[in-house]
Design brief:
This protein has about 425 residues and is an alpha/beta fold. The chain folds into 3 domains: about 35-55 and about 325-415, no CATH class; about 80-150 and about 230-300, no CATH class; about 155-225, no CATH class. It is built from 10 helices and 15 strands. It has helices at about 25-30, 125-140, 150-165, 170-185, 190-210, 220, 295-300, 330-335, 340-355, 410-415; strands at about 10-15, 20-25, 45-55, 60, 70, 80-85, 100-105, 105-110, 145-150, 240-245, 280, 285-290, 305-310, 320, 360-370. The strands form 3 sheets. It has a 10-stranded mixed beta sheet with strand order 9-10-8-7-12-6-13-14-3-15, sandwiched between helices. Strands 4-5-11 form a 3-stranded mixed beta sheet, with no helix packed on it. Helix 3 (about 150-165) packs antiparallel against helix 4 (about 170-185) and helix 8 crosses helix 9. The protein starts with 9 loop residues before the first strand and ends in an 8-residue tail after the last helix.
């Protein structure tokens, strides 16, 4: 790999071939002047996937009292708020009794939360009795089936049995080892980093098995697991109840499984403490709790979604653009690394929005790029509207971030420190 100087002037050539302007930024990360430069250099870049956010004040705004206002009459999609939660530190007492979860592989499901709407933890018997009354009040019937959720190791056993019955001995042996590790995890016998790695490796294997499950057998086997168990939620002795009522779900047979938004009913049991700080115009939305579903967002989430966060209730809800639906992995990677590609894509998103809504929004981006092993840094200004920013080819663009660490500290190199993330 070529040397990595602390800083260098980036000379670019005009059509005459002469050096005609000097950029003071580091073009290895800004890409400014690269189209006109004859300097060849090998660099290593790593980026986390970019995130685009659409700002449309006709939909989301704040009133004079500081309350968030969501005008659902201006929203063309399903009336749903996806609430970000962090498995491992979810505050279940702040969530309602009847909660909808969206999780990898299994899609959406409805769970009774015995910590919701109460200062004490209800027993399983108390939870079942209350659920019967709540469901009768909301839907005029009882759920088809209610069962207590199970530890992850327990729900993996029928998947393991299926692999063995199908003659997949190598995969069965691998999954059997995962079952043993999950039992250790449930007894708090694994170190934190080992637990994270084991859970991540298990999820990778289950996604691979699910990808070839043409008959949809696997997801129902995993559905009884404890909430967000695959994503790091700690094992609890709390009696969460899985509510199975097929009348609530989309009957089209499409995967992944999702609730039919037209039949879902709201009540005090489906609302959490946050509801009082938000003002809705139009129908009340369904709230779906979601962790990090990764690439499955391509199929599980719509093109544009409204998100908020349990960890940061003070933050205004935001519109997230699902670029997984719109881009190949290769295009997403290149856009995440190159500010000018990102600007071009943001302009495309604004144009698509204008066609659907009749108004042009602002488009902002969250980015993280590492150059030659440095810490990840922002590629572009997150406050810049990339759909409207101008471009200059022979100077620095203020909306592009320059390299923040000109040289990796010698002491970091001597320690063998690696800044690059997974």
């Amino acid at each position: 790999m070529a040397s990595d100087p602390a800083s260098h002037p980036l000379w670019s050539s005009g059509s005459s071939g002469r050096r005609c302007c000097r950029l003071v930024t580091d073009g290895r990360i800004t890409y400014e002047g690269q189209s006109f430069s004859w300097r060849l250099k090998t660099d290593m870049r790593h980026a986390f996937a970019h995130q685009l956010f659409v700002q449309d004040t006709a939909i989301i705004s704040r009133d004079e009292a500081g309350h968030t206002r969501i005008n659902w009459n201006e929203w063309c999609g399903d009336k749903v708020i996806y609430r970000r939660v962090t498995p491992g530190r979810i505050n279940w007492s702040q969530l309602p009794e009847i909660v909808v979860l969206l999780e990898p592989i299994i899609g959406e499901r409805v769970v009774y939360n015995p910590l919701g709407g109460s200062d004490t933890v209800r027993t399983e018997a108390e939870s079942r009795e209350r659920l019967e009354r709540v469901w009768q009040e909301l839907y005029g019937r009882q759920p088809q089936f209610v069962r207590r959720t199970l530890p992850l190791s327990r729900v993996l056993e029928p998947v393991l049995a299926g692999l063995r019955a199908g003659g997949n001995r190598q995969e069965a042996a691998t999954l059997d080892a995962f079952v043993s590790r999950m039992k250790q995890l449930e007894r708090n016998e694994l170190e934190p980093q080992e637990a994270i790695k084991s859970r991540g490796d298990l999820l990778t294997m289950l996604r691979r098995l699910h990808a070839r499950d043409e008959n949809g057998v696997m997801a129902p086997l995993l559905r009884p697991m404890e909430p967000f168990a695959l994503e790091g939620e700690r094992n609890r002795s709390v009696p969460f109840l899985l509510i199975q009522d097929e009348n609530l779900f989309d009957e089209s047979g499409k995967q992944p499984r999702r609730i039919d938004r037209t039949v879902w009913r709201h009540g005090e049991y489906t609302r959490d403490q946050r509801r009082s700080s938000e003002v809705y115009s139009g129908r009340e939305p369904l709230v779906v709790c979601i962790g990090d579903i990764g690439v499955e967002g391509r199929d599980m989430l719509p093109q544009a979604c409204i998100f908020d966060s349990q960890d940061h209730p003070e933050r205004v809800p935001y519109i997230w653009w699902n670029n997984l639906k719109d881009l190949t992995f290769s295009k997403s990677l290149h856009i995440s690394l190159q500010a000018f590609y990102l600007r071009r894509y943001a302009r495309r998103v604004a144009e698509l929005w204008q066609k659907e809504y009749g108004r042009r929004p602002a488009v902002h981006a969250s980015t993280a790029v590492s150059l030659n092993g440095r810490p990840h840094q922002q590629l572009v200004d997150p406050n810049a509207d990339l759909a409207t920013v101008p471009v200059t080819w022979f100077g620095h663009n203020a909306w592009i971030r320059d390299l923040e660490m000109p040289r990796i500290p010698r002491e970091a190199l001597s320690r063998g420190q690696d800044f690059i993330g997974p």
